[in-house]
Design a protein that fits this description.
The protein is of the alpha/beta class and 437 residues long. It has 17 helices and 17 strands.
């Protein structure tokens, strides 16, 4: 699709500007603005083994290092509390947050003591869907997101997940058991589409299995890899074909939201819910500003992007010294901020024009004339009135493509940060890897 290629190119150009980091103004985040709602993000960068497509900051698990890290994370949380922040929502991502369940629970408990936390989201892997883990998280976590990626054994083997987490049938049974137990307000199943070896038949089978698991939320991410991971993928499973991405997305939308009695409805451009109770998958839709704690965390506050050190050693040293681990900062102009809001709110399927005018002092068309005219001309907008902008099916796919390209750019920043790691932490590890001390 020509419009997708043009938008992807535009987002790549903007990424070069958005993600051009400078030396930070301070070793501490700015204090909160009165009356503003914030979400807290925590990053747990440890996995039992590292998946070859993943560009997030992650390291092979070593228990002593991970326990020290959780302790540092709780100290960093105290720093944020001392700045005056309060939070309604906590999102814990990774890596594998449940890698040490006792440490995760202790961290959640402290967060609930220190802040006004109403809801907690945590990511996990299928091998942690056991009675002991579910019992430990029940009542403490409201939304559990399980990284499944596919219910095809062949793809799981290519992703190096089959031996780690079990075959597709076993994983589906685990998900269904947890869903039927209703231990969580939302049980999300993370999936990936457009893997090189994935066919339309494999994708349709994934959709059938998703419906059979009784999960009340699923997220289908397009494959998005940084340049370093893209090279590795090409060597192991083949080259990514973005030309078929739209067709795969259309199959997903039809399979989950089509027909007289669709099993799911849209929660965002790539998240699907069975009920209004399901919590949002992408926290950046509901919370534009958020401090991010932990190694490799990315914060957005007061029109500035902050990135924490990717080095576990440096992270520990900085927290132990009483400072945060901020390694880079990018200040957004008002136009940068408008572009960010435009993309994120439309990805969430509704741009609030009244809020836009109150925050920016102009209309959407006045603030971003080129972007507005282009999206309108290509048929991306469904409703465009005084209150809001919503998307057509074509518009939803274009937002998926834009977000994919945006996150590819973010992954590129992660690659740069990883390249600056000390010698023994530098390599982007695959497979079993070597534990980092």
């Amino acid at each position: 699709m020509l419009s997708e290629r043009l938008l992807s190119r535009a987002v790549r150009t903007m990424n070069g500007h958005y993600l051009d980091l400078q030396t930070p103004d301070s070793t501490m985040l700015p204090p909160p603005e009165p009356g503003k709602a914030y979400m807290l993000y925590m990053h747990i960068p440890f996995c039992e083994r590292l998946c070859p497509y993943c560009s997030f900051n992650r390291f092979p698990f070593q228990e002593a290092t991970a326990r020290r890290y959780f302790n540092d994370l709780r100290d960093e949380m105290r720093m944020v509390a001392d700045l005056g922040y309060d939070f309604e929502s906590l999102y814990i991502g990774g890596g594998t947050p449940t890698i040490l369940i006792d440490e995760l629970v202790a961290t959640i408990d402290l967060a609930r003591e220190m802040f006004s936390i109403d809801e907690v989201s945590s990511e996990t892997n299928p091998n942690h869907l056991t009675d002991a883990y579910i019992e430990a998280l029940s009542g403490k976590v409201q939304r559990l997101s399980v990284g499944v990626q596919s219910f095809d054994d062949g793809l799981l083997q290519q992703m190096d997940r089959y031996d780690k987490y079990g075959d597709a049938e076993t994983i589906a049974a685990r998900v269904r058991e947890v869903a039927d137990a209703k231990a969580f307000t939302s049980l999300n199943v993370d999936m990936i589409f457009n893997f090189p070896a994935q066919t339309e038949e494999i994708l349709r089978h994934d959709l059938e299995v998703i419906c059979q698991t009784h999960t009340n939320q699923t997220t289908f991410y397009p494959l998005m890899a940084s340049p370093s991971v893209e090279r590795s993928l090409k060597e192991t499973v083949g080259e990514v074909d973005y030309a078929r991405e739209q067709r795969f997305y259309e199959i997903i939308c039809e399979g989950l939201t089509g027909g007289d009695k669709p099993p799911f409805t849209f929660g965002s451009a790539w998240t699907f819910n069975t009920s209004d109770e399901a919590m949002i998958d992408e926290y950046i839709v509901d919370y534009e500003e958020y401090p991010a704690l932990g190694s490799g965390g990315m914060t957005f506050l007061q029109r500035s992007l902050y990135i924490n050190s990717f080095s576990l050693r440096e992270y520990h040293e900085r927290i132990a010294s009483g400072a945060m681990s901020i390694m880079g900062q990018k200040k957004f102009s008002q136009r940068d901020h408008m572009r960010y809001r435009f993309m994120m709110q439309l990805f969430g399927l509704r741009l609030d024009k009244r809020q836009w005018e109150a925050d920016f002092g102009c209309s959407v068309a006045g603030g971003l004339p080129a972007e507005y005219v282009f999206m309108k001309a290509i048929g991306a907008f469904d409703i465009d009135d005084a209150e809001q902008i919503t998307l057509t099916p074509k518009g939803r796919y274009l937002l998926v493509a834009m977000m994919r390209q945006f996150f590819v750019g973010v992954n590129g920043v992660r690659d740069q940060a990883r390249a600056a790691l000390p010698e023994d932490e530098r390599e982007l590890l695959f497979g079993a890897g070597v534990p980092c001390k």
